[in-house]
Design brief:
The chain is mainly α. It has a single domain, classed as MetI-like fold, CATH 1.10.3720. Helix content is about 75%, strand content about 0%.
């Protein structure tokens, strides 16, 4: 009897977490899945009898929506440019801080980490003023060196890169800490042995540091890619998806249809398409990582 009680003890400890996960994560997912097969809107919330089952019609309509197709292309643009930039800059800064000898490099940890803990809405508002075409700081600096002003948020292409720059500035801090922790876990004896063998800094970086950071890079790439696939706050605050829907992400498309147009079933269908896309991308990355490990 005592042995049975001891076996059940761990379940009592994890029960609160499982209950919270079920109520606030798993159950809402199933509810959203059911909603995606209906035409529920504000009237349906008031009177459930008017809700109709429409099957896969919402999914068909979403895939035939030109704005949704454009939001997919915009999101892919963010992922293709944003993810590599975050990894490169975060890893580069982590390397400088880890191998830097001057005391100021310790202060750089706080400096680069601070944007990550700032409120994204407040930061987006401040950056909107910096991007102002007439009175913004960035165009003022360009004019001071006799360069033409840039339509940061008014041109479709410039607007994408402007949002990526802000998101990059915010994302560096957390990923820098992850890389820094991984770097400090590499035994110094590896570098000492490489120096005795005559390996220069580039050889040490490519033959020791990068290979031993494989798992950290893998983790950062997955979390960063998921974050970019769910890119929402920056375009919502700064551009509202404009100009000409050039910065509308899939997440912003879902929000717009769900909370502005009250097309809950339609928005739920879009959210599940995004949900499946994130799962597929994650599984593909895991597959490639496992192949590298086996190799």
């Amino acid at each position: 009897m005592k042995g049975t009680t001891n076996q059940k003890t761990p379940y009592f400890f994890i029960a609160p977490a499982i209950i919270l996960l079920t109520l606030f994560s798993i159950l809402p997912i199933f509810v959203a899945l059911i909603i995606s097969f209906t035409d529920i809107d504000l009237a349906g919330l008031a009177d459930w009898s008017v809700i109709r089952f429409v099957g896969l019609q919402n999914y068909k309509d979403v895939f035939s929506d030109p704005i949704f197709i454009k939001s997919i292309l915009n999101t892919l643009f963010y992922v293709v440019f944003g993810v590599p930039l975050v990894i490169i800059f975060s890893l580069g800064i982590a390397l400088l801080i880890n191998f830097g000898k001057a005391p100021i490099f310790k202060a750089f940890r706080v400096i680069f980490y601070m944007p990550s803990i700032t409120n994204v809405v407040a930061v987006a508002v401040v950056w909107s003023y910096l991007y102002n075409p007439q009175f913004g700081l960035f165009n003022y600096l360009l004019n001071s060196i006799h360069l033409p002003a840039v339509p940061w948020l008014q041109d479709p292409i410039w607007a994408k890169f402007s949002l990526i720059a802000l998101a990059l500035w915010r994302a560096i801090g957390v990923n820098m800490i992850i890389f820094l922790a991984a770097l400090q876990g590499i035994p110094k004896s590896y570098y000492e042995a490489a120096q005795l063998d005559g390996a220069n800094s580039w050889k040490q970086l490519t033959k020791i540091t990068i290979p031993l950071l494989r798992y950290a890079i893998f983790f950062v790439s997955i979390t960063t890619m998921i974050g970019w696939l769910q890119f929402f706050e920056e375009p919502f605050v700064m551009t509202k998806g404009g100009p000409l829907d050039s910065t509308t992400s899939v997440a912003l498309f879902i929000y717009r249809n769900g909370f502005q147009f009250s097309k809950f079933g339609y928005a739920a269908a879009g959210s599940f398409i995004l949900f499946i896309a994130i799962i597929i991308v994650t599984l593909v990355q895991f597959r490639f990582q496992n192949k590298e490990v086996d190799y």
